[in-house]
Automatic annotation (TrEMBL):
PANTHER family registered for this protein in UniProt: GLUTAMYL-TRNA(GLN) AMIDOTRANSFERASE SUBUNIT A, MITOCHONDRIAL, TRANSAMIDASE
Alphabetical list of InterPro entries matching this protein: Amidase, Amidase_CS, Amidase_dom, AS_sf
The protein's name in its UniProt record: Amidase
Highest taxon of the lineage: Bacteria
Family: Belongs to the amidase family.
Residues of the Amidase domain: 25-439
Annotated organism of origin: Cytobacillus stercorigallinarum
Gene3D superfamilies: Amidase signature (AS) domain
Pfam families reported for this sequence: Amidase
Length: 467
């Protein structure tokens, strides 16, 4: 049972099927782990102890009867506290929703439960998912397990922390400008933003409806594939071939655009990113450099869409009770208040044109994936950036937002650590509904480096020395 909390879903699933541990035993042990470690890290807003143990008992009975729902049967999974859960509070990280109890489960929660996952708790997030640090003024900041003075990234920071620190075997987050990928990179785990609309957002508090994505955060690429298979819309999943596997990367063309994506990188991070790119080449990939027309205009369009759609959802609540919002979120909503309808329409038109441009480029140049860093600087200290500057954090920390404008599948993978033992990640972006290929490429790289074994050594975490 040593280090069971840092095992991947595949391993834990085998342990459960082989009766090396029962769902109830596993859930009880994980709850104890959370109660100990989370007093420092603050990854969870709500720990669903009673509900989780009830689920575990049902699943244990089914397991004994030989009724196995699938690879998630009896495996504790965390969900971001932005997904509705029947009969329990969904705060969305806000004071406004602190007493909101839904009568329904979000679609993704329904699918997870149907697959036999145990919902262990609801994780902390940047208020209304509207930020990149998970410094929540109402529920406290989540802390990076590699250095508890540092941010874990956001907005799905609690989900990333829970997986990285052995408080969940997988988690689900949302990504509107990088909110899965950035915290995954800063906490040293795998994060997948699928193709737009592959996973239903029904029952998820919206941030920006045309940019919102839901996806898994896991220890391994294989685990992301497992969660995606469960969480995706059944009809849309028919367009995705998740059976794709690769022995090496021969015949795979990886494109690199230096403009924007490789700018502003910390020196140490740049070294690891270039090493990762060289590793992909050594594994057989063909690396090509390309230019992308209209990047700066695309970024401005993404900002405009985000501001307008976020304000549209919050308008009545914000006008009625602005004081209940955190200062940084107030700045964001005030910016959205001034967006003209003509500006929003123009931004949407540019989004469509930019999507078409990238789609054609990938086809014409036979590009399988684009490669770029996920985070370009290490995580900064909690509380070091004021509310009025925080709107730019997502653009300072990483190169994730354009992926949401494009709506294409993007996987972030750990690729090293700074000299201060802070994780670094790179991302690969594929064509629409080609998650199978993206995951297969990521898996070849992952297996060549074996970061998972490194992450199992939980004594490297600063948090372990503080409890």
């Amino acid at each position: 049972m040593e280090n069971v909390f840092f095992k991947d879903i595949e391993t834990v699933s085998k342990m459960l099927r082989n009766q090396e541990i029962t769902p109830v035993e596993l859930t009880k042990q994980l709850l104890e782990r959370i109660k100990s470690v989370d007093s420092v890290l603050n990854a969870y807003i709500t720990l669903m102890s009673e509900e989780a143990l009830t689920q575990a008992a049902v699943l244990e009975k089914e397991l004994k009867e030989g009724n196995i729902r699938g690879p998630l049967h009896g495996v504790p999974i965390a969900i971001k506290d932005i997904f509705e859960t029947k009969g329990s509070v969904t705060t969305s990280g806000s004071k406004i929703f602190e007493k909101f109890v839904s009568h329904h489960d979000a679609e993704i929660v329904t699918l997870l439960k149907k697959a036999g996952a145990i919902i262990i708790g609801k994780t902390n997030l940047h208020e209304f998912a509207m930020g990149a640090t998970t410094e929540n003024p109402h529920y406290g900041p989540s802390r990076n397990p590699w250095n508890i003075m540092k941010i874990p990234g956001g907005s799905s920071g609690g989900s990333a922390v829970a997986v990285a620190a052995g408080m969940a075997f997988g988690a689900v987050g949302t990504d509107t400008g990088g909110s899965i990928r950035l915290p995954a990179a800063l906490c040293g785990v795998v994060g997948l933003k699928p193709t737009y609309d592959l996973i239903s957002t029904a029952g998820c508090t919206p941030l920006s409806k045309s940019l919102d994505h839901i996806g898994p955060m896991t220890r391994t690429v294989a685990d992301s594939r497992t969660l995606l298979r469960v969480c995706a819309d059944a009809e849309k999943l028919k367009q995705v071939d998740l059976s794709t596997r690769l022995g090496d990367l021969k015949g795979i063309k990886v494109a690199v655009c230096k403009e924007y994506f490789f700018e502003g990188m910390d020196e140490e991070i740049a070294m690891h990113i270039h090493q990762a790119l060289a590793k992909l080449e050594s594994l057989g990939a063909e690396i090509i450099e390309v230019d992308i027309v209209g990047i700066s205009e695309a970024i401005e369009a993404q900002k405009m869409i985000f501001k307008a759609e976020a304000y549209a959802f919050h308008e009545s609540m914000f006008l009625d009770k602005p004081h209940l919002y955190g200062e940084d979120v107030q700045f964001r909503l005030q910016a959205g208040k001034g967006v003209l309808a003509s500006e929003y329409i123009q931004a949407k038109q540019y989004q469509q044109a930019f999507q078409q441009h990238i789609r054609f480029k990938m086809i014409e140049e036979h590009i399988d994936v684009f490669f770029s860093p996920t985070n370009v600087i290490p995580p900064f200290d909690i509380g070091s950036v004021g509310p009025e500057q925080s709107v730019n954090n997502i653009f300072r920390l990483g190169k994730t937002p354009l992926g949401n404008l494009l709506g294409l599948p993007i996987l972030t993978i750990p690729c090293g650590f700074t000299s201060e033992r802070l994780p670094i990640g790179f991302q690969i972006m594929g064509r629409a509904y080609e998650e199978g290929k993206v995951l297969a490429i990521g898996e070849v790289y992952e297996q060549s480096e074996n970061w998972v074994a490194y992450l199992e050594k939980n004594e490297v975490f600063q948090v372990e020395k503080t409890i």
